[in-house]
Every structure is written in C-alpha cells, then in structure tokens.
Amino acid sequence: MSKIYNIAIDGPAGAGKSTIAKAVSAKLGFVYVDTGAMYRAMALYFLRKGIKPDEEAVISEAVKEVGVTISYENGAQQVILNGENVSGLIRTEEVSQMASASSIYLPVREKLVELQKELARNENVIMDGRDIGTCVLPEADLKIYLTASTAVRAKRRYDELTEKGEPCSLEEIEKEIAERDYRDMHRENSPLKQAEDAVLVDTSGLTIDEVIGEILKLASEKGIGWQN
Asked: Is 204 marked within a binding site?
C-alpha cells in the first residue's frame, strides 16, 4: 500500500483556510476535509433545538443525538447531519457564531475528531481547522499556520457579505472576528495555536494564487506531489 499523506492547515477565522485548502487539494489530488463544516453542522443541530451557546450540560447531552458525516458528489464535499444534506444551510453568521461557541466543549470535539482521524488514516487528505496540526493530526507530513491581520480578515468577510447583498457593518465584523480569535485561542480544550513544526504563512498581502503557490512549494519540499 502506498504511503498516505496528510496536510494540516490551521489558523484563525477568515484567514482563507477553506479556500486555500480546497484549491491545494485539487492540485494534489487529495481529499479536502472541511472540519469547520462539521462543527457548523453540529451547531445547526443545536440552534434547531433552541439550545443556547452557554448551555454546556445541554450541549454535552445533545451531542449523543448528532451524527455528522461527509460524502462527495462530483468531487464536492457534502455535509450530512443525521441523514440530511445541510451543506447549503451552515454558512450563516448565526451558525458560525454557535459553532465557535460550542466547539469549546470537550464532548463536541471528541465526537468529531474521531471521524476526522478515521478519514486521515485512509486517504491522502488536506484538513483545515483550529487544532489540526496540534491535536487531530499531530503526525501530519506538512503543517501550515495560515493567518492574516484582523483588519484584512474583516474586510474580506465584509466584501463577501456585501457581494451577496447582505447588510453588514465592517466595524461589527472586525469586532466579532477579534472576539472569536480570543475565544478560540483561550478555550480550555484544544485552543488555536501554531504547532511548533508548522510553517507560518501570512496571507495579508498575498493573492490567493500566491498563497496556493507557496503551499505547493512547501509540499514539494516535503516530497508531497500529485498522488495517482
């Protein structure tokens, strides 16, 4: 059996992890695992049940009722929540906030991390999230810590929402991103931090193509190329 390669991409919200990971996985022929989407699916379940972000005991119990799986249709990742395809329902700001708040609880993380590890054992994967290189895939062949300034990340999000015609405030978005960074970095379970052996890539002044090129170069240096 040929060697399985794993690439871990960590970083704060809005750094472009998903966009970059998807593009690099396509170039390398790897499976892209969007761990954030899995946490969002679970968050959607909590919201539907009317559970509040600070109800730790209720969330810990509700986790037992949740099944989140990933399937692929025409190369696109589909997120399945208890048998329902929720891929088009998990990108709202409300779901995003709930995912960030609920992911601090250990039962939530434990439930999803095992699925993520199982995927990585059987496939060449690129996985992005907050604790991939530090907790989920500590033995990954290449670890990237992708970041950008708070102002740059807020402007990207503002442009994204404005383009969709959604009313939003740049100042409010920047405030929310700063709060989310603090939450993610200070949570008790698997806080966001750069793994000691991760390569820091700051995307603030780079184009998407430049970031993709940089990561492909780092992969090549590790002997990771197109996998047939």
From this structure: no
